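Long-time lurker, first post. I've been practising inverse folding by hand and with some scripts of my own, and I keep getting stuck on stretches where the structure tokens seem ambiguous. Below is the full token string for one chain I'm working on. Before anyone asks, I'm not after the true native sequence, just a reasonable design that respects the backbone. If someone could post their per-position residues I'd love to compare against what I wrote down in my notebook.
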């Protein structure tokens, strides 16, 4: 779903050829006058949006509001199948329904909870603690409110300096950290801190001008962010290391960003569009919606976007020591600094402290719990250990199998047998000792 100042609209994430919206747009002349940020609570069937317009309605003491919406499943008739049912939107403090197959929308109980929070732009929802977080551009602060109880009040958790301008925001509730972009004219940055506000860090401070949007990829443990001045989208680790420029041609003024599956989605003020691209390479850029005067916030509505998707949170990913995640979500096990696996020279070290015989590597069957013994690049370039005086040599074969061979005198020798075709046509097919 994405916001466009006066309304919130929906779009198919993967069907760019379908111009029809999954749900009717949501709009209201009183309560939706400058909609900016979006966040979602899939389990609670709610979406949240912020509105920064200073209105004159008697309902508000300030119209810098955060409103929430949710879906309910509406059964049209007991005799109808599930495919004929329709969902209807309910905006907290307002109710939005639509009848049958049409898109007529009615608003009911239009009472608004006042939350004077300055210019609220970025929103993020913590699914674990049921907290809603937001950035205030005018107050230079990050705040939250707990939505598990009805009598909660907003609290400022991080008060930044007068020159700081926080914008995009996301939360990793499993690691108890919050991430945000900072427009500070002198020192723009990507920052993070614990949910208590402790240990504030600037994790990206170079080659950055106006960081607008920010989104966490929980499954891959990566951070994506966009720069509206440098017109690019970058990816990095959650500590700011291993930065990679994903896009620097198609984004012309990226405003907000979302990550889901194998894709990133963003709104663009110059392109006047909602776009999608491959999150690994930045290729395959697709325009999902165009001719949008001012596209604002964007959020992926799905049930698998929270921090519990981190594979390292389940039995440490099967690792004995450190569990890390590759950009595609695969677990990579490493030893703690200064610690080495106690594998012999005839064994393969899996990366999690586990040792297996070399003859079990690259045989098409994973013997390591993390699958490192069948890694494609390793199997193309690996060297089999030799017990003779001949030094190990890398051979350019696509795949070969190391096998143990016992000589007549009982000496174990590792042999390297070619299993698949040669990459180098000059190489000689045979057995290497």
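-- Answer (accepted) --
I ran through it position by position. Result:
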């Amino acid at each position: 779903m994405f916001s466009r100042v006066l309304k919130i609209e929906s779009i198919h994430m993967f069907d760019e050829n379908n111009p029809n919206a999954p749900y009717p747009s949501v709009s209201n002349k009183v309560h939706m006058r400058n909609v900016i940020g979006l966040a979602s609570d899939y389990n609670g069937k709610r979406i949240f949006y912020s509105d920064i317009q200073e209105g004159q309605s008697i309902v508000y003491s300030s119209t810098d509001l955060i409103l929430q919406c949710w879906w309910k499943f509406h059964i049209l008739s007991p005799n109808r199948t599930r495919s004929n049912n329709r969902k209807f939107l309910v905006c907290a403090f307002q109710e939005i329904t639509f009848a049958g197959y049409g898109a007529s929308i009615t608003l009911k109980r239009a009472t608004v909870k006042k939350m004077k929070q300055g210019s609220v732009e970025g929103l993020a929802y913590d699914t674990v603690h049921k907290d809603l977080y937001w950035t205030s551009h005018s107050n230079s602060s990050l705040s939250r409110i707990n939505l598990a109880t009805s009598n909660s009040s907003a609290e400022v958790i991080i008060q930044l300096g007068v020159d700081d301008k926080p914008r995009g925001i996301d939360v990793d509730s499993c690691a108890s950290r919050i991430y945000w972009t900072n427009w500070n004219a002198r020192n723009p940055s990507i920052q993070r801190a614990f949910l208590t506000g402790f240990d504030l860090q600037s994790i990206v401070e170079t080659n950055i001008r106006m960081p607008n949007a920010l989104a966490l990829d929980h499954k891959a443990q990566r951070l994506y962010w966009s720069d509206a001045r440098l017109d690019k989208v970058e990816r990095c680790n959650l500590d700011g290391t291993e930065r990679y420029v994903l896009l620097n041609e198609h984004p012309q003024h990226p405003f907000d960003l979302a990550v889901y599956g194998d894709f990133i989605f963003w709104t663009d003020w110059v392109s006047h569009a909602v776009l999608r691209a491959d999150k690994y390479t930045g290729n395959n850029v697709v325009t999902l919606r165009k001719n949008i005067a001012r596209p604002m916030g964007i959020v992926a509505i799905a049930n698998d976007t929270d921090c519990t998707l981190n594979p390292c949170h389940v039995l440490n990913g099967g690792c004995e020591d450190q569990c890390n995640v590759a950009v595609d979500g695969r677990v990579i096990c490493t030893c703690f600094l200064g610690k080495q696996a106690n594998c012999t020279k005839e064994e393969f070290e899996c990366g999690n402290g586990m040792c297996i015989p070399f003859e079990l590597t690259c045989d098409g069957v994973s013997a390591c719990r993390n699958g490192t013994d069948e890694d494609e690049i390793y199997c193309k370039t690996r060297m089999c250990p030799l017990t003779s005086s001949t030094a190990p040599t890398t051979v350019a074969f696509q795949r070969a199998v190391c096998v143990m061979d016992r000589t007549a005198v009982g000496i174990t020798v590792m042999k390297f047998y070619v299993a698949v075709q040669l990459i180098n046509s000059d190489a000689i097919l045979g057995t290497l000792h």
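A couple of notes from the structure itself: The first strand starts at residue 2 and ends at 3. The two ends are 62 Å apart (CA to CA). Happy to go over any region you disagree with.
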